[in-house]
Write a structure and sequence with these properties.
Elements (H helix, E strand, L loop, with lengths): L1 E6 L8 H16 L4 E6 L10 H8 L7 H18 L3 E7 L7 H10 L6 E4 L2 E4 L5 E7 L12 H11 L4 E7 L9 H17 L1
Parallel strand pairs: 1-2, 1-3, 3-6, 6-7
Antiparallel strand pairs: 4-5
Helix pairs in contact: 1-6, 2-3
Length: about 200
């Protein structure tokens, strides 16, 4: 089993969403001791936002790229290879200003590549990243799940489905700032939910 964890907390391994992901990864290791786990920490290694030259390099066929384009496309190629080669994708996602972290959006912009992770057909786009399961582990200061203010869930579900990942589970630890005294219990409850999902 290959597991890819994309961490998008500004606080890296000290973030609440990262704590949920670490619990998930520890549980996976217990159940599958030989699991191959890759962690891409976007706080330690931010993915640059796309610019026009990088975008053009990314969509140019590999054998047609100039030397400069090869360098510009190298990171996107690496990120896509990590995604395509994994079995389980784990996204640890805090909520910043009602959305996903910009670092995660930058990662998304690099891996959403026509002809590689999705393709256009006469009937619309078709995802090419098949046979994967994804877990979205979110930490939030307020209460957003099930409300119009939860922009993360529909966006991530749409994006993942767009590239072909339709088996997606969401676990949220909410009200971490609203009920700060209860934060340890809130996180513990979310970890319990993760355990239940992994047992299913």
């Amino acid at each position: 089993m290959k597991v890819l964890h994309i961490s998008s907390s500004l606080f890296g391994e000290n973030g609440n969403s990262s704590a949920l992901a670490q619990h998930f990864l520890d549980s996976i290791k217990l159940a599958h001791p030989t699991a191959d786990i890759t962690v891409r920490d976007l706080a330690k290694q931010p993915v640059p936002h796309l610019d026009a030259d990088t975008f053009k390099a990314n969509i140019t066929a590999a054998h047609e790229r100039s030397e400069q384009q090869k360098q510009l496309a190298q990171l996107g190629d690496t990120l896509i290879e990590e995604l395509l080669s994994t079995d389980v994708l784990v996204l640890s996602v805090p909520m910043y200003n009602f959305g996903i972290p910009s670092t995660l959006k930058a990662w998304i912009d690099q891996v959403a590549r026509a002809g590689t992770t999705f393709k256009y057909t006469q009937n619309g786009p078709v995802g090419l990243v098949e046979g994967k399961k994804a877990y979205v582990l979110g930490a939030r200061g307020g209460a957003y799940a099930g409300t119009p203010a939860d922009t993360q869930t529909p966006f991530l579900k749409t994006f993942l489905g767009f590239i072909g990942i339709t088996d997606v589970e969401f676990v949220f630890a909410e009200k971490l700032n609203m009920n700060a005294d209860e934060a340890p219990n809130i996180l513990a409850a979310a970890k319990h939910d993760i355990d239940q999902l992994l047992k299913a």
